[in-house]
Amino acid sequence: MLKLDNIYHGDCLELIQQIPDHSIDTVITDLPYGISYQSNRATHGRKNSPKFDVIANDEKPFIDFIKYLPRVIKPTSAIYLFTRWDVQQPVIDELQANGMKVKNVLIWDKGVHSMGDLYTAYGMRYESIVFSSMPDFRFQNGRPVDIIACNKVFNHDLVHPNEKPVDLLRRLILDSTPEMGTVLDCTCGSGTTLLAAIEEKRHYIGFEIDEKYYNIASRRIKDLLAYPKMF
Fold it and tell me: What are the residue boundaries of the structural domains of the chain, listed by start?
């Protein structure tokens, strides 16, 4: 069985099978959207050098782990899956196919819009978060609204191409996770969900298949635990 308050390097489809039954309070996962994203921002003065490689398992919306969630979550659990408007339906369908009821699609207002198509499409300023709650779930601090305004991480500060701000993850954890509850992130990237859990005194389990980001996340966790006042 996996230990709490750890990040594990490996395939989440294998690792999740080592989680005890009905032990997870909240699932927060920024799943690969299936768009094979690669940053075009140049680094070190090389105009054609991408800042980030294509992330793992990004050939299609990565929903394979969803079928394992009913076993590990509690009747009081909540699930938050980050996605995007044009690929959110497979996420919704897979949750429902596995007996989990989708209650909302939350809107994360990032504060600024992306570049993309400058001439024939509106600037994309939000991302979707598919929210599912179990029959005995109750919010921790009253009913929140379905639009969350939180500025994205500035490009020059990113350590992962899809990095989410810690404050956004803290908000979701506080909304839905009891004190000393356990948060699971199946594709934790640079570890932001785990940092948020630590800051809010919740237990956590994180999985990351890419060794580079596993190492980054491990270092960020170690730094936060060693120097909490710096974060």
Answer: 6-230
